[in-house]
Amino acid sequence: MAKESKKLKKLTDRARDYLDQDEEVLYKILGAYEAKILGADSVRNGVMLATNKRLFFYAKKLTGYETESFPYSNISSFEASKGMMGHSMSFFASGNEVKIKWVNDGDIDGFINHLRDNIGKKESAATTENNTSVADELKKLADLRDSGVLTEEEFQEQKSKILNG
Predict the structure, then answer these.
(1) How many helices (H) and strands (E) does the chain have?
(2) Global pTM?
(3) Is 47:41 a contact under the CB 8 Å cutoff?
């Protein structure tokens, strides 16, 4: 884990208030997020979090905050580079180009590798926690079948529901 600044830690702590209860922050970076606001180019300094569900951007503003969420399944491509001012990244999500520049803080390599590994994946594929819970559910079903509570047919029907969502 890379050493993180106080600013990265503080913004990450604030961003956690906007995450789901079962959402886990895996990687975080601090940088400048380029966006279009009311048709005008804008740059927001903030934290980009890679969680077990999505990428999540959080920026503190003078009178509030700004967030944006990008499910891994909506991300279609990713580019990364490094220059004198730090790392730059861009990705396409639901037809919109997202750019983050001047990234010098956080686990940058971990973030990049995690994003590359999860592009286009559904939530259950991006998280090992979900895969474990599916296995637990199947085990419980098998126990119910083995104890005679469920018939083989009921077991197969419930198993199919769990595996196919």
Answers:
(1) 5, 7
(2) 0.69
(3) no
